[in-house]
Prior knowledge:
Elements: H1 2-20, H2 27-49, H3 56-79
Amino acid sequence: MEFLYFLLIGAVSGWLAGQIWKGAGFGLLGNIVVGIIGGLIGGWIAGKLGIGGGGLLWQIIIAVGGAWVLLFIISLIKKA
């Protein structure tokens, strides 16, 4: 069941990050991948900043932030 939550959080975070970063949607599977990688990036950044939390909403916020960072990096690579 935890794996399904992991995928759901990844999908929601990737979709939200795609909405924030206009024109960066990758479809459902792409959004899940972006959200999962974004969750890892966001968790790493949150750990380095010393901020933490626990609930589902907090996990989504951290994953969206990380996914947004990932989409920013992807946009820089696409421009090059």
